[in-house]
């Protein structure tokens, strides 16, 4: 039986309440000040791979959209991350965070030190958006429903517990407090309007579950590789390497 829009929205929000990655132990460790400098750096390196892939995901989505109105509405997501003449963009802000934690930003931008599981999870998300229905692709983006809460908690926790944290280094998260609600208001309304059968609602809900799994698996990989007992796979970033920025500041 097809749920009403209000009932279906409640179903989507329940997925976040149960499965969003704000409940992962790594985030609790990070926000409470329990991460070592190298664990923070590993998070910055691996999360960059996700951040840099978002505009690629959105470009893949837009390449399949025939409705100009939908393309216009979606275009700002790419600009928010890639930047414009008037907007630095989320990718550049994330690299500023890499500077602040003492990483060589060229190394971070190269993506060489990314964990295999991070790469597999993020690439799977890009493929999902490229290959699935437009409804499923938009529904997968609805983890943004839950993002402002985690960004606010992250800003508070990092400022309270880490010397690198200031308005400049945390500008990515502050900007997302304004950008994410705009994106999710459109995306949620679009999904509620287009998921007009029980089958489509099930597909949209499954897409959101998939996206929460993508986010959760990235933190599982970080926790396994860099939190005791650390098991860093071959090719992934090794602590005490690629810290040119930190050494430059110290000299």
Automatic annotation (TrEMBL):
UniProtKB keywords: Oxidoreductase, PQQ biosynthesis
Keyword Oxidoreductase among record annotations: yes
Pathway where it operates: Cofactor biosynthesis; pyrroloquinoline quinone biosynthesis
Pfam families: TENA_THI-4 (PF03070)
GO BP of this protein: pyrroloquinoline quinone biosynthetic process
NCBIfam families documented for this protein: PQQ_syn_pqqC
PANTHER family assigned: 4-AMINOBENZOATE SYNTHASE, PQQC-LIKE PROTEIN
Name of the protein this chain belongs to: Pyrroloquinoline-quinone synthase
